[in-house]
């Protein structure tokens, strides 16, 4: 039986949390930064991509930051910016693939917005070029190189996916990531129909399986949104997968602000960094206006049998 958000919340104790702090960003002139990637190397420099926007709008850009100290990141002025939301990255064949959500005017509904995923590829950030668009109306498409193929994690909504489901298929190469194949991908059963899930980052584990950082979410009776960072494990050989589990909750973080009152309890997983000592750092958007870093016990160790 698929567990509800309330069941997962009741099972979560917070015992895996070791430390937590809020990140500060300089050089953005009062704009909010949230829903980041985890840090990665660009030409040997440790960088982080973040969603940058004003508090009263969703018109955003993806910008890149370098670390000044543990909790402070500075805008890198000489790197390009991209008109996208919710960035993510991976390496495919040694190439950097950066993705995000492109928002645009709906072609058929006046004063409404639509969206689609966009991926860019290059040797580094400065050399990124457009690779592919996903289907209209679909966010949170993630990819991971495994067994000489590319695992594509999809997220349809609507008639096929309800409020949001994770699907999968295996592409032979980057050119094999197409709208048609994304739309045809079978779905995983990870949540009930009234709730929704999405993937945020996928990585190959030491045993060849894929660890997925994601989120599960629901509305409350007053329309408030509640998002929780999660993990699950996917076996690329058999397509079997574990139940999803919550790895952090808003109540364990420092107090902070939110874009709107109904978004205070929103944690949107950005990325995770695994350490050799059995810990990990979770980078997460909070309240649609902040970034927090949470040091936790590595949630993927159990999938590696440790």
Notes on the structure:
The chain has 306 residues and is mainly beta. It has one domain: Glycosyl hydrolase domain, family 43 (Tachylectin-2, Chain A, 5 Propeller), CATH 2.115.10. It has 2 helices and 21 strands. The strands form 5 sheets. Strands 2, 3, 4, 5, 6 and 7 form a 6-stranded mixed beta sheet that branches. Strands 1-21-20-19 form a 4-stranded antiparallel beta sheet, with no helix packed on it. It has a 4-stranded antiparallel beta sheet with strand order 8-9-10-11, with no helix packed on it. It is globular, with a radius of gyration of 18 Å. 41% of the residues are buried.
Reported CATH architecture: 5 Propeller
Quickly give the structural class. mainly beta
Order of helices and strands: HEEEEEEEEEEEEEEHEEEEEEE
CATH superfamily: Glycosyl hydrolase domain, family 43
Number of helices: 2
Helical content band? under 10%
Largest sheet: 6 strands, mixed
| Overall average pLDDT | 97
CATH fold group: Tachylectin-2, Chain A
What is the CATH C-level name?
Mainly Beta
Radius of gyration: 18 Å
N-C termini distance: 26 Å
Approximately what portion of the residues adopt beta-strand conformation? over 45%
Count the E strands.
Answer: 21
**Integer tally of domains:** 1
Characteristics of this structure?
306 residues, mainly beta, Tachylectin-2, Chain A, 6-stranded mixed sheet, 4-stranded antiparallel sheet, globular
